[in-house]
C-alpha cells in the first residue's frame, strides 16, 4: 500500500544514507527519491548522498537515474533475495557539487551506467632481418606485442606510444592503425577493442637503446613469423599472420575478417 511506503535519511559527518521500504508505484518512488535527495543535499547541507539497491530492482534504478544519482560500483552477492539466493548490489551516489540539470546532468548519469570497454594499443615492430618483436610478460604465459591498455580520455595512438616508452624505453611516433579488432573475453578479462599500429623497422642503434622496465616485462623476444605461433595466443596469431601478408588497414572480430 502507498501509505506503507517510507523513505529514511541518515546523516553522519556530511554523508547521507538514503533508504526506503514499503510498496509503491514508479511515479511515487521517483518523486520521493528526488525530493529526499534535494532536501538532503540542498536543504540540509549534505555533501554526499549514498544509496544501495539490489541489481535487479529496475524500479529503484529508474528512480535513481531520474534523480541524477550516479552509479559508483557493484557489490557482488551482497544481499539475499526473497528466494534466499544471493544477489548483487549496486552502489549509487549523488554529490552536492554534481551537475544535475540540463543535458550535462543526464549525460553524467548515463556515463556511469552504460557499458564501457577496454581500449588496447599494441605496436608491430620488425628488425632488419624481418623478425617480429614480442615481449614476455611476468603475469601470463603467452607473449604479446609491445603496448597495453589505453588510459581514460587518451587516444589509442597516444596510449600505444606511451606504453612503448614504458615497456621498451624508446620514443615512437605512430600513424594509422593496421587493424582494429574486437577481442572476446579472455583470461578473466571482459571483451575489448584493440588497435595495432605499425612501428616500422627498428635499426640496430634503436634496438640497442631498448631497456627492460622494472616490472611486468621479463624479456624482449625477436621471432620469425614461422616461430611465433608457439608463443602467442591464437587470436594474436591470426591477426599477425594477416597483417604480415599485407599491411592494409582492416577491421576484424576475434582476429577474423568479416565475410
From TrEMBL:
Cofactor(s) the protein needs: Mg(2+)
Q: Does the keyword Secreted apply?
A: no
One Pfam entry name: NUDIX
Which InterPro entries does this entry report, sorted A to Z? Acyl_CoA_acyltransferase (IPR016181), NUDIX_hydrolase-like_dom_sf (IPR015797), NUDIX_hydrolase_CS (IPR020084), NUDIX_hydrolase_dom (IPR000086)
Q: Which residues form the Nudix hydrolase domain?
A: 115-245
Q: Which Gene3D superfamilies match?
A: 3.40.630.30, Nucleoside Triphosphate Pyrophosphohydrolase
* Molecular function GO labels: hydrolase activity
Q: Which UniProt keywords apply?
A: Hydrolase, Magnesium
Q: Which CDD domains match?
A: NUDIX_Hydrolase
Concerning PANTHER family, the annotation shows: GDP-MANNOSE MANNOSYL HYDROLASE
Protein name (Swiss-Prot/TrEMBL): Nudix hydrolase domain-containing protein
Amino acid at each position: 500500500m502507498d501509505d506503507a511506503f517510507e523513505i529514511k535519511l541518515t546523516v553522519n559527518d556530511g554523508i547521507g544514507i538514503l533508504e526506503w521500504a514499503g510498496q509503491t508505484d514508479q511515479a511515487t518512488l521517483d518523486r520521493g527519491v528526488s525530493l529526499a535527495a534535494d532536501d538532503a543535499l540542498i536543504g540540509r547541507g549534505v555533501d554526499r548522498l549514498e544509496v544501495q539497491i539490489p541489481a535487479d530492482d529496475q524500479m529503484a534504478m529508474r528512480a535513481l537515474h531520474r534523480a541524477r544519482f550516479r552509479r559508483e560500483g557493484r557489490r557482488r552477492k551482497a544481499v539475499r533475495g526473497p528466494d534466499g539466493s544471493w544477489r548483487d548490489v549496486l552502489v549509487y551516489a549523488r554529490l552536492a557539487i554534481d551537475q544535475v540539470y540540463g543535458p550535462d546532468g543526464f549525460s553524467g548519469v548515463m556515463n556511469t551506467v552504460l557499458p564501457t570497454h577496454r581500449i588496447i594499443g599494441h605496436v608491430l615492430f620488425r628488425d632488419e632481418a624481418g623478425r617480429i618483436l614480442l615481449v614476455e610478460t611476468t603475469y601470463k604465459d603467452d607473449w604479446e606485442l609491445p603496448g597495453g591498455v589505453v588510459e581514460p580520455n587518451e587516444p589509442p595512438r597516444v596510449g600505444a606510444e606511451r606504453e612503448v616508452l614504458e615497456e621498451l624505453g624508446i620514443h615512437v611516433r605512430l600513424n594509422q592503425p593496421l587493424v582494429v579488432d574486437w577481442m572476446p573475453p579472455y583470461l578473466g578479462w571482459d571483451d575489448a577493442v584493440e588497435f595495432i599500429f605499425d612501428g616500422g623497422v627498428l635499426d640496430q642503434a634503436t634496438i640497442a637503446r631498448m631497456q627492460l622496465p622494472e616490472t611486468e616485462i621479463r624479456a624482449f623476444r625477436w621471432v620469425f613469423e614461422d616461430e611465433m605461433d608457439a608463443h602467442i595466443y591464437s587470436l594474436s596469431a591470426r591477426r599477425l599472420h594477416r597483417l604480415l601478408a599485407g599491411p592494409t588497414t582492416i577491421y576484424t572480430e576475434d582476429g577474423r575478417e568479416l565475410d
